[in-house]
Design the sequence.
């Protein structure tokens, strides 16, 4: 896809031994989707009776049958492009719809919200295939991105002082929330001149993952990389291990600290506890250090932690390297970004296939919890509203209590404000408008999609070469990760990080934020990220019944190009997501001393 290529395979199928396995196409796609788009064409002729005319009407008969033949061919053409099952070996996402979405009846299928646009997108992709055009969005649209280089690993001077005590952090959340907590803890330990104990990860009933730091990250690299900046130990000293932190007043929960607290708050409230008890235990520690009013050395230390000190363990790197190899179909180091995420598991020799493939990684945030919490409408009518309300009552009772006290915006208003998660259908329309052809290999990251296979139908129909880690890796290869959601998420982190293009649908997602920041830091201006504005896209999609495809294409392209502009980190924004600032990176390759 980087240039004109010969014919390409229709699938990315692998088995446990050689990497090839057969995919079973989703039953029911054809009847439901074909009926939606071909009904109008068939209806014009349904029930029409053809009578044998006398000889004098032979010309009329010939004309009639010619028209019928033309529409039959057109109907077959539309069928082939709207029904993914014509690709007999095409990959299909391994989605088994949840009980919440169960049902094979046509009435239980998820809706297509923008059928006319999807139809136009299909014809546009067909034309692009014939013309073999290559989209410019495989590359960064702004070359000045290459002028920013990584440099947060440069050593900083540290005043030699005796430690004021020990900081212990028990971080909550999933992989990405915990990653942020670890680097914030490093900065706080340096701020308070304390010794940091290797952070612990709390077990969550949501994530259900008992993984600890050493199961995900390499401890020795973490400690060695930061040894000149902060003292780090693996355990508390023996005399503190039996401390009842709550009883002595050393337990600090998220309720005890402001969200995105300032350094002054830590010095004012936490330093006295360290001086008195010699230890502080932060429980939860979710987003409890702000991004402003922080000394430059601490911002730089956060970057050093995130981009240099946290390396996935060999178990994760090895399987991630296999996963990436099976998508790209070649071996060999391609970039600094690859080496940072895959470590030593990139073979030294380069073995290229006849047509090495690029791939786009797509992070969809359309899980049932995200959909339910948004309070938006996704075209599913009463059935959808009943399902999502039941889910809220079970999982988000506090949300419902808040909604009783104040009238919430309507679903229509929420969509206009850009607060609704993008559906797979909307993601497909964005990709099609940017010119990614039907043969584009797409790696889908994330959890199970709300609505299952039927909700995925527009995306899979336009882009049949769509795969997940479950498609590319055998059950045997995935078994060691099966009950460890954070380790599985690490595979997605790597696959998205080293992709040729990374497309996000929710800028607030921790995975999307951290991966896009990683690509900015190590990408060298050659790791584009697509960031659609949900608010602007909603305004464009409001015109779905009247807008032409060229107009839709032009407006979406403008939106994406503006989102790719090279900007310095704005005040208050996460340095993990936007590292392009002199506290974290160097412009034009020069080392900036701060």
Sequence:
């Amino acid at each position: 896809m980087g240039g004109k290529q010969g014919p390409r395979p229709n699938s990315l199928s692998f088995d446990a031994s050689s990497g090839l396995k057969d995919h079973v196409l989703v039953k029911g796609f054809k009847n439901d989707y074909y009926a939606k788009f071909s009904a109008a064409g068939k209806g014009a002729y349904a029930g029409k009776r053809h009578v044998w005319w006398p000889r004098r009407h032979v010309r009329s008969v010939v004309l009639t049958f010619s028209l019928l033949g033309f529409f039959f061919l057109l109907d077959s053409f539309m069928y082939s492009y709207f029904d993914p099952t014509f690709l007999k070996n095409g990959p299909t996402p391994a989605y088994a719809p949840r009980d919440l979405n169960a049902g094979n009846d046509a009435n239980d299928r998820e809706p297509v919200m923008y059928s006319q646009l999807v139809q136009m997108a299909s014809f546009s992709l067909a034309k692009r295939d014939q013309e073999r055009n290559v989209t410019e969005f495989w590359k960064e649209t702004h070359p000045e991105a290459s002028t920013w280089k990584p440099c947060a690993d440069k050593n900083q001077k540290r005043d030699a002082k005796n430690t004021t005590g020990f900081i212990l952090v028990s971080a909550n959340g999933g992989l990405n929330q915990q990653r942020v907590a670890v680097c914030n803890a490093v900065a706080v330990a340096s701020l308070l001149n304390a010794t940091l104990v290797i952070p612990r990860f709390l077990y969550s009933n949501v994530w259900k993952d008992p993984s600890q730091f050493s199961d995900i990250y390499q401890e020795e690299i973490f400690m060695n990389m930061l040894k000149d900046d902060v003292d780090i130990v693996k355990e508390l000293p023996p005399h503190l291990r039996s401390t009842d932190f709550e009883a002595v007043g050393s337990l600090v929960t998220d309720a005890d600290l402001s969200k995105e607290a300032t350094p002054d708050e830590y010095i004012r409230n936490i330093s006295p506890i360290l001086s008195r008890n010699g230890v502080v235990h932060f429980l939860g520690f979710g987003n409890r250090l702000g991004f402003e009013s922080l000394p430059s050395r601490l911002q730089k230390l956060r970057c050093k932690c995130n981009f240099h000190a946290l390396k996935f363990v060999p178990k994760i790197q090895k399987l991630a390297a296999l996963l990436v190899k099976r998508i790209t179909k070649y071996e060999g180091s391609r970039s600094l970004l690859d080496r940072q995420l895959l470590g030593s598991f990139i073979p030294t020799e380069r073995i290229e296939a006849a047509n090495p493939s690029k791939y786009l990684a797509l992070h969809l945030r359309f899980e049932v919890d995200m959909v339910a919490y948004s309070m938006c409408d996704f075209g599913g009518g009463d059935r959808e509203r009943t399902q999502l309300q039941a889910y809220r009552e079970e999982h988000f009772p506090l949300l419902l209590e808040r909604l009783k006290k104040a009238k919430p915006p309507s679903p229509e208003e929420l969509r206009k404000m850009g607060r609704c998660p993008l559906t797979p259908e909307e993601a497909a329309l964005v990709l099609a408008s940017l010119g990614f052809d039907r043969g584009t290999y797409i790696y889908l990251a994330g959890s199970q999609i709300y609505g299952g296979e039927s909700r995925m139908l527009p995306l899979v129909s336009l882009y049949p070469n769509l795969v997940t880690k479950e498609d590319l890796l055998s059950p045997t290869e995935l078994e060691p990760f099966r009950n460890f959601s954070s380790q599985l998420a690490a595979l997605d982190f790597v696959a998205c990080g080293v992709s040729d293009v990374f497309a996000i649908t929710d800028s607030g997602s921790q995975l999307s934020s951290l991966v896009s920041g990683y690509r900015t830091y190590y990408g060298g201006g050659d790791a584009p990220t697509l960031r659609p504005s949900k608010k602007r896209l909603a305004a464009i999609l409001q015109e779905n019944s009247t807008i032409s495809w060229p107009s839709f294409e032009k407006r979406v392209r403008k939106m994406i190009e503006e989102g790719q502009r090279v900007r310095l980190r704005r005040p208050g924004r996460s340095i993990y997501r936007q590292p392009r600032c002199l506290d974290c990176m160097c412009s034009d390759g020069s080392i900036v001393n701060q």
About this structure: Residues 392 and 398 are 9 Å apart (CA to CA).
